[in-house]
Amino acid sequence: MPGFIRKNKRSVVILILFAFLFWLVTIQVKNGRFPFMERPVLAIAGFFERIIAAPFRFLESAGTRYVYLVRTERDNGRLRQELVRLQIENSATTELLTENERLRALLAFKKQNPPTAFAVQIIAKGNSPASSTITINKGSDDGIEKDMAVVAEDGVVGRVQAVLPGTAKVILLTDPGSTLAVRVQRNREEGLLEGKLGLCALKYVSFYADIQEGDLLVTSGLDGLFPKGLPVATVLRVVKHEASAFQSVTARPIVSLSRLEEALVLRK
Amino acid sequence: MKPRYYLVVFLLVIPVQASLLSPLSLGSVGPDLALALLFIIGLLTGPLEAALAGMALGLLQDVSAASLIGLTGFTRGLVGLGAGLLGRRMFDLTNPSTVIFLTAFSLAEGIFISILLQLFYGSIPFWNLLFARLIPQALYTGLLGYFLLQPLRDRKIVLALKRRVIQREF
Hints:
The complex is a heterodimer of chains A (268) and B (170).
Chain A: H1 2-7, H2 9-31, H3 38-107, E1 117-125, E2 133-136, E3 149-151, E4 156-163, E5 168-172, E6 179-184, E7 190-195, E8 200-203, E9 216-219, E10 231-240, E11 247-253, E12 262-266
Antiparallel strand pairs in A: 1-2, 1-12, 2-5, 3-4, 3-12, 4-5, 6-7, 6-9, 7-8, 8-11, 9-10, 10-11
Chain B: H1 3-20, H2 33-45, H3 47-64, H4 71-89, H5 97-121, H6 126-149, H7 155-169
């Protein structure tokens, strides 16, 4: 046996390395991901990402600005009309808001402030086949912190996973490591939404819960990361297995994550 | 190639793929430059070196994507090993069939990762993933590999590289 090992030393080393990597993965599945190596590699990769992306972003933004200029005059007229309409609506809304605040005060409800946000640009998309992440152009220098919620105009995008001075890594809803507390908007059934590479799965939904295809899932706010009521995903498929206490629910994110260019990071 | 050159190349490939190749993506499907590069390294160097290179590349990708550290390292190591074994049996690396192998490797890696994730986390929508992402991505990566292999059309380069590998191994 020792003779065989000596003869095939390099092959044995490779085999041990494969076993070590597999063990490393199983440890993380059991105990959570390791963050210890993220900072140095993110710093180096982020530095190159910014340098490589900068000239392309400049050209893209110059082209976009020209197109915007052409459209500006046409939009100007339309926006003036819109402004008048919104001013009328605004005065009505202010009335309703005042009334709402008065009634809330009467009922002693806790006031919920709308979250403030940072506007960020997506400068890179994750390149590991086993995960779904993006890199944004703001980091700890701008006030971004770990676990901040990231949203787009349509709904939830993900949460900040790792932060560096100039960039941050965002783990998307569809990443296998992403979990999010949600509820069905129609009937308030609760569940945990997990990423499944491109799609999501709603876990721990009772066999008897009324979940239908097309149902909208919104954040429940129970995870303490996302504000309550943000659209997250729509139910794509519901499968009930007689042998299981839970339903198997597949959902598609509301936000088109592959076409995302800008997003908002919500302050905690 | 010396380890430090591999490290520099891989640290450049990761941001190039993440930022420059993302506009080439069609939906969630994009070409996998890192895999195509690793495949070529495997063809030119040999199974052991390519397996180590694949592990290093995969580990860097895992860390830079804040992913499960070791998962891509493991699968890319296998791809490197496979490409290295294939390279020993192929003498015309620029043959179009090489691209078919690259496509097959990309697809096999995707399926293997899906199976592992199914084992670890459960309820992966496998068929959806296969048709919506893995097969198109494998074809796209094969196409990218075809263009990457074009500079190697000069047989002198390939033969010189091959000779170097054979000399090193014997």
